[in-house]
Amino acid sequence: MITVTNKTDHGGDVRLTGISKTYGSFTAVHPLDLTVPQGSFFALLGASGCGKTTTLRMIAGLEEPSSGTVFLGDQEVTHLPPYKRPVNTVFQSYALFPHLDIFENVAFGLRRRGIKSVKKQVEDMLDLVQLGEQARKKPHQLSGGQQQRVAVARALINHPKVLLLDEPLGALDLKLRRQMQLELKRIQTEVGITFVHVTHDQEEAMTMADTVAVMNAGRVEQLGSPTDLYENPQTTFVANFLGTSNLIEAEVDSKTNGDIVLKAGGAGKLVLPEARCSAPTTTGGRVLVGVRPEKISLTHADEAGEIPEGRNRITGRIADSSFIGVSTQYVIDSPVCPEFEVYAQNIDRDARLVPGAEVVLHWNPAHTFGLDAAQSLLAGTVDSAGIDEQAAV
User: What Gene Ontology terms describe where this protein resides (cellular component) (predicted)?
Assistant: First the structure.
């Protein structure tokens, strides 16, 4: 029987206090404080070079912190070697023993600790990862996804307090990776052990994790649930890195009944709920107005009079469109944003919405968010400096 951890007991939290890592003059991780609740599925998300893997390796004991402390529950483990920490790590390479069958790969940790009777524990663990019928096969006889599940089983059988996953799905093709995302979440929910998962894949983090820490240049940019990060980004980096955002430069005109009224170039007035703005909002001040592409409706200019009152709206011309099955993705050339993106579900397609058509884009003001205009509009995009240029850290 697999033991399920009590998720309401916080004695097994992973706590990082003032943790940092420098290599000479380069700072890979700036001092950060982070708590991973016991029994949660926690993701460290960021581009190559952001410090996420270095942070994971400091939890594992594979890197010595330059400052700060690491606690696993009530135990400080900052200077303990990896084998003395109640953690196990699953890497992208799986590192299975090719000469051992699946049963013996999973049993390896128990036998190394001198445990004689391993049959029941190994069988239970193979059942958990749905590989009971593959027990006597060698690793090379299994698919990549099956090998990944063997690696998870081998790590979990030692009953660690924390399982660390370093890009474990990176070597799998897209369809198998999506299947394994759900599989790992199922396993984590069933055993109740804390999972800390490092990934650069936004969809993967949002599919699997209860809480996501978005990292950028060695710092945690924003921490929260996938829904909160997506719906309420606090920086342009998070707005752009988690999905796509349209960002409009605007000026605060007035405030009324909890809303901010803004002027945005040729768009006229836009309304932003004050509670959804993380920027200073003094009259005349600059704000970046954000809205996600799927929140926007697209109406041909000939029917502009049928758009309900009270919606934010801007005009533009369709520059490009791409049919991708479930939706059509439009790029709109607008006076307020040269490449405004709109994702429209393919339910009732308007044949007039083709490149060159004049359109009105409109959306519910409640779906608008506001960011500090002092930030770069490109932060978190593939065009911004450093996203794909640094080596993985």
Answer: ATP-binding cassette (ABC) transporter complex
